[in-house]
Specification:
Layout (H helix, E strand, L loop, with lengths): L6 H30 L3 H38 L2 H37 L3 H14 L3 H16 L4 H23 L9 H26 L2 H4 L9 H33 L3 H37 L6 H25 L1 H5 L6 H33 L3 H26 L2 H5 L1 H19 L8
Length: 442
Amino acid sequence: MSTQVKHREIWRIAYPIILGSIVQNVISVTDTAFLGHVGEVELGAAALGGVFYLTLIMLALGFSIGTQIIVARRFGERQWNAIGTTVEHTLGFLLLLAGVVFLLMRLFGAPLFQAVISSEIIYQASKDFLLMRIWGLFFAYTNFAFRAFYIGIGHTRVITFTTAFMALINVVLDYALIFGHWGFPKMGLEGAALASVIAEASALLFFIIYTRWFTRRNNYGLFHFSRFNGELFLRIFRVSLPMMMQNLLSFVGWFCFFIFVEKMGEMPLAISNVIRSIYVIMLIPIMGFSSATNTLVSQLIGQERNNEVPSLVAKVMRFCVLLVTILVTANMLFPEHIVSVYTNNPELIAGARPVLRVVSLAALFLGAGLVLFSGVSGTGSTQTSFVIEAIGVAVYVGITWILTHYVQNIAWVWAVEIYYGAFIGVVSYWYLVKGNWRNRVV
């Protein structure tokens, strides 16, 4: 059955997330661009520390996606008051989780990095970066609870405002703290980490003010802080736990990728950090449309319009690939200009050019694959999506190890992203067509 959801409705939910992601990735671009002018060691250490930090916050993102699915389902069912209680339980759990993860990283983060990083210089720099950066966990985890609420109800515009404010703070503080301008101390790599922590805190402050003054909290029973409901929490946890493990696995795979690349030398690692920053920009529309898919699929099922789900996912996928194609075309036509934003090193620019072409092709596969994959999780079949992710990441890590040890061509190593996008896309498509998801209760 063809879906009645129009392109403008898909775009209404997706574009604020896309705009917010564009602004948010100014942080990554700024950090990489500034540190690229500090040195290769700082650039490589920021890559390892940054990816590891993203791995840590993927736990919270996974839980928040589970919450988002439930919020969207209740929104479709018009059970308004249940939304606020769900978000409150999520917020409490994420704050507790942030405390646990922070403590573990303070105790074991440095020994872990020392065990997996070959270069002593990069190890010391990465450790210093991480020990400063993990203070942002408390703010980032709380922000995910707010994002789950607003994306779940389809009110995504606030995410654009929040991330714009966060990016502005980060850019200003990066310039001040990395290089020591305007009377601030010259902190280098640690300055980039501190700037990001303060930016995340500013985003949380923005969310609180916006929710307090511009959101009809009483309509959703939001922040009434009723008594703890064990049955509700277990329902949230059952949906969210596979998403947590799925997101953690995904970034563990990416962290392993950079660990393997680090053993190829400082230049391949520096190239990979530049490419990572560009690749993340190409992921912006993909993540926006993936979040929209999650929300719309769950809302459709809540409205008992299950038969429209495959058609909706196909429509979002085509929309997503179209926008990604625009970015890919720019990369193919102007590779040197794009890479030179991050570094003025001629050797680094020359080495990054062929890798950029590979990841541009990978982005097309990933655009289609992640939208289909989000369709699976949007149905509430989060255990199935976890199994798909686990198999995909296991093979991804294995292929990466082989390529870094035996081929040792950084462009070929990055080609593993093509496999990953194709795998999750094909398996997710099969499940949406053949799987037993129509009567899933969340």
